[in-house]
Fold this protein.
Amino acid sequence: MALLQLERICAQYPGAAEPVLSDISLSLGPQQLLVALGPSGSGKTSLLNLIAGFVEPSAGRITLDNVPVKGPSAERGVVFQDDALLPWQDVLANVAFGLELAGAPRAQREVKAREMLALVDLAGFEKRRIWQLSGGQKQRVGLARALAADPRVLLMDEPFGALDAFTREQMQELLLQVWKRSAKPVFLITHDIEEAVFLATDLILLAPNPGQIVEHLKLDFGQRYSTGESARAIKSDPRFIETREHVLARVFSQRQAIQEQRA
Amino acid sequence: MSKYQASPVTEALAHTPSPGRNAAPRLYLSTRAISVLTLIVLLGAWWLVTAFEWVEPLFLPPPSAVLEKAWLLMTKGYMESTLWQHLGASLQRIGLGLVFAVLTAIPVGIAIGHNRIAQGIFDPLIEFYRPIPPLAYLPLIVIWCGIGEFSKVLLIYLAIFAPIAIATATGVRTADSAKLRAAQSLGASRWQLIRHVILPSALPDILTGVRIGLGVGWSTLVAAELIAATSGLGFMVQSAAQFLVTDVVVLGILVIAFIAFALEMGLRALQRKLVPWHGQNH
């Protein structure tokens, strides 16, 4: 049963001739980690902004548990590419921020925040200042902050895009662990093909001009990681490489089709 | 200490002894030492020209006379008030002006930065009166509000208000949209957004506005104390000038300069304490 539902979504910036997204339908249910993959200009970020409620679609319907989505809300937690943390608060207060906004008493929100910090392997960092953290640590705090507010779904906007390759690899594994343990449906956008194939239970491939879904794949590499297989073993598995190359070929054939269309 | 400080690289280069030459160790002076030395030279020159009576004491009294006068002013007073009372009167005026300005300019600045209608209302008003020298609208204030304490505080208030309001509006407008969206997706209401994200984001700019405002306000003080004042540093200097009591004039100017310097340093310290994240790479 789908929790988040997008029905025939179109989006257009005011004054723009071409729509950013056209006729997007998808659904996200429990146990799902849906990854939207696409080159820049394919409307990935617009799609996330629509679900988060930062912008409104020009046509179509977005519902969460059959209730139409209207504006941003704590039901849809967001992890941003840039940390977007509050530097005037320490790590603990940042993670507890959503609970503070909801009016939870201090003791209660600190317990929850500590629990979330432990979940992202940052126990002991409670009193650190934000500017003392590395890029990967900041993204962990961002993830803990989003989870602490106990959202129905978690939206991630290229969360590891600004990290170096080693940290990114670690963060992907951490995300799978957290996703498994918190049991929250995740919607993640990325332009990293390997990341998308590794993480996704569902992978949608977006093509630009206008942004549309050109392929929807069901994958299980993330599941295999959760059952104990090592990340490197999965990523060097011939089936993984085959899937990765297939997706890569699709992206390039799309690009070529667009260029031919224009010529 | 300040932005004028030479970069560590050039200092280090200046510090490196040139190889191959058997030079004697050169005297190395820090930037601050040079500043202190400049002041000492200046004081020495002052003492010199007065000690040899190259300048009439009426135009420039010797440092000793100014010091003596300072002692006299602190104990006996000038124009029925001691130096402390003059200083207190001035500080009270600027303090009141500052408190009212902070209490009103920050909300107005937030409104300008946050709300299109408020911006439409306040922007032209502030931009219209801000460039006018306070001395120019002083007569109008006297006609409207009389010559009491209120007029003086009002003049200082108006001088401080504009820089704080403008700086606050700038700070609000430049608040990071990712932080705002993050707070919204954690369930922040409009007021929570202002309280938890916009105001702290704007705080570095607000403090800069207060610094600029206090500078302008302090220089407006003398103008404010031209209005039928019987105490205050501006009044003291002004009335002493009328009787050609030059040592009091010099002393007054020095005290005014010192207070301005202390205010600036105090605010910089406050800035470091209140917004430690400012300028950090985050």
